[in-house]
Amino acid sequence: MKKVLLTVLLLSAAVMLSVSVTGAQSGLVYGYISPGPDTWYQRTVDGFSFGAERDGVEVVVLNSEYSVEKELENIDALINLGVDGIGMFSFNESGARIAAERANEAGIPLVTVDAVGSVLAAGVPLVAEIDFDWYSMGVSYADWMAENYPGERFVILTGNFEGIPSQRINAGMTERAAELGVNELVGIYDTDYNPATAVNVAQDLVQSGEEFGIMFVMDEDMAAAVIRMLENEGLLNDPIKVIAQNGSPAGIPLLQEGKLLYTISSSPGWEGLVAYLALHNNVIGHSDEMNQHFILPVIPVNEDNVDDPHIVVPWSPVPVYWEVTYQYFPQLLEYDPEFMAEIAAITPTLEPSSGS
User: Is the pTM of this model over 0.85?
Assistant: First the structure.
């Protein structure tokens, strides 16, 4: 009956919502809400679905398309569908909290992605929050600037002023830079994660006559576009150095070519898989632990490690995801001892470390 109801409701929901469904055999159905069409968000969907496919779990994906109203509709739609669990990636802090509150009322387990601990801080119970340590990333950029380019002023082309990861990176970078007193901030500028907007902002800064030597760009799709503009203007690396965030397919070649000077590996696909595993462990009853916070590691990328997939974890799902999960969060694989043993045998040089 549940499957028949799900099918009927999905056909109705497809008229007004962005919906995709992956097939499955386990009888379990999870929902995943993505905030928008950006590549980062889609890769979290891919990682979540990668884990679900292995376990035979069906995934219903709804896209909020950066609309607060649509996001609320998506939360209610998944609850009305009666899914067994929900993965929630909101583009605003209140969306993640509201999803957790409504899921609790419906008795549906929920995990959040990139809410930066905001749901736990609000005191709303949930299975887990999955995050990168965005603040520490910001600190790492400030340390790198102070060590490599002391005295140079810097600008931040952030992703979205409302986005919590952007807020946390900005805070880590600016507060650490102020503490060190070596690099002065010129300003923080919104790009809405749009490469064309990032280029326009960068051009305006160049033409303003403002003196600065370092430009941080929040993702590498935007950084690639900014780098092309600076190359055309004859300004790349002399005087303007570009640093970015992600360790993405768009950024790694630029790092290897010396056009992008520093980045940090943060794979949204792996993050999506960790979110799936935290949820699945709860739904199948392997773990009843609540209010967990899984923080993926900060992994600086340089010329020496740029070719190591355990360091620059790929954005799109690959088998190495299981290996780095075994290394950092082995408890999430314990629900399937045979598979965990296979991963251990494949990666004998990796020792599991305590996670979460």
Answer: no
